[in-house]
């Protein structure tokens, strides 16, 4: 099985592969997909596994920015992992995923994430469950009482507003010390902002993306950095409550809108789980944000059969971290375990799950340094 970069000439075969894996796309969706993937071809971010000239599997690395404790870094989002029916169960998926891990690192990404259709294949190449997309279902009338606290200037967005929207995201997630949240790259945002069926609004410190879905309102993104903008954006959605029966919204697990509701009793929340992997320990630690009040050190050994493991001393202080190679005993984690720790999974959980062993003197320091409630608003 040969792994190589896909080219524009391969896209018809990729579409056939996607159809056999996910179902057919409409003509409009096929055209939108082609526009979205063309930049990835020129950047070495779309790989194929070939049996001779026949395409057996494919996987795409999407360019994202991801925040960890409010600090942004590049992240390789793995999507479109597809294997032909006749090639499943033969290790082809693992083969292409090992290539994806190495390619992401070669492109300079220190972390990667994906939404799994199944856990085993991705866990086998070092990914571990880390966070979720939280989709809450609310009666539309529950939003009716949210009213702007002060005038907020809102305008409609469209293609060409991606750079301004991304700047808003950087300010909002930095101020919120968000973990796990992502932003599409500018080209992709401009594609999404051209969707005529979406309602797109931008403020100086927030934005909203929502749409009708049947007789419900679907909120894809509402991000706000001030109480005034938060209320203004959610009041837009609430204004449809005389027609819409319910609202389905992607929210943070502690999203402030939930504390604006007049009543809360039973809530339906669907968690769409995502997995996470550290590709380069030293770079990932240097790029991550940490609580400014935490000062500590710990020695960790990370076992990574694909990227190569090692032992590092982690020094955390002033909101920043560094990982220095050392030769001394410490706590031992699989790369799955270290990836989960990085995402805020407690050391006690990791030990009970068999992902962490050895010296326990660093556990409290590691829990304090890597504490997080990771989430994503966007599915990919």
UniProtKB/TrEMBL annotation:
GO terms for molecular function: aminoglycoside N-acetyltransferase activity. It comes from the Bacteria. InterPro entries: Acetyltransf_17 (IPR041380), Acetyltransferase_Eis (IPR051554), Acyl_CoA_acyltransferase (IPR016181), Eis_dom (IPR025559), GNAT_dom (IPR000182), SCP2_sterol-bd_dom_sf (IPR036527). Residues 1-150 form the N-acetyltransferase domain. Keywords: Transferase. Pfam families: Acetyltransf_17 (PF17668), Acetyltransf_9 (PF13527), SCP2_2 (PF13530). GO terms for biological process: aminoglycoside antibiotic catabolic process. PANTHER family: N-ACETYLTRANSFERASE EIS. This is GNAT family N-acetyltransferase.
């Amino acid at each position: 099985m040969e792994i190589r970069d896909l080219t524009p000439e391969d896209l018809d075969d990729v579409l056939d592969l996607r159809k056999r894996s996910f179902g057919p796309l409409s003509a409009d969706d096929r055209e939108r997909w082609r526009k979205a993937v063309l930049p990835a071809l020129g950047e070495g971010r779309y790989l194929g596994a070939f049996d001779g000239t026949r395409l057996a599997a494919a996987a795409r690395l999407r360019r994202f920015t991801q925040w960890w404790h409010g600090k942004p870094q590049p992240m390789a989002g793995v999507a479109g992992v597809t294997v032909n029916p006749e090639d499943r169960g033969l290790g082809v998926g693992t083969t292409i995923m090992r290539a994806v891990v190495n390619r992401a690192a070669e492109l300079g990404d220190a972390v990667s994430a994906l939404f799994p259709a199944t856990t085993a294949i991705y866990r086998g190449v070092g990914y571990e469950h880390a966070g979720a997309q939280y989709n809450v279902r609310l009666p539309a009338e529950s939003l009716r009482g949210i009213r702007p606290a002060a005038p907020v200037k809102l305008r409609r967005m469209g293609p060409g507003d991606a750079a301004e929207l991304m700047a808003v995201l950087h300010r909002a997630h930095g101020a919120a010390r968000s973990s796990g949240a992502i932003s599409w790259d500018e080209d992709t945002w401009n594609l999404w902002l051209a969707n005529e069926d979406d309602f797109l609004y931008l403020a100086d410190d927030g934005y909203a993306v929502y749409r009708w879905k049947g007789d419900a309102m679907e909120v894809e993104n509402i991000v706000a950095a001030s109480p005034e903008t938060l209320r203004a954006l959610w009041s837009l959605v609430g204004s449809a409550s005389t027609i819409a029966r319910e609202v389905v919204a992607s929210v943070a697990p502690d999203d402030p809108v939930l504390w604006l509701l007049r009543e809360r009793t039973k809530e339906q929340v669907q968690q769409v789980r995502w997995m996470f992997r550290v590709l380069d320990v030293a770079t990932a630690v240097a790029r991550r944000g940490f609580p400014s009040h935490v000062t500590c050190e710990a020695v960790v050994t990370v076992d990574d059969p694909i990227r190569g493991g090692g032992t590092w001393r982690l020094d955390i202080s002033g909101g920043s971290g560094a990982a220095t190679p050392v030769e001394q005993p410490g706590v031992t984690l699989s790369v799955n375990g270290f990836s989960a720790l990085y995402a805020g999974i407690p050391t006690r959980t990791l030990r009970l799950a068999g992902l962490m062993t050895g010296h326990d003197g660093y556990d409290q320091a590691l829990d304090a340094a890597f504490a997080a409630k990771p989430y994503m608003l966007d599915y990919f």
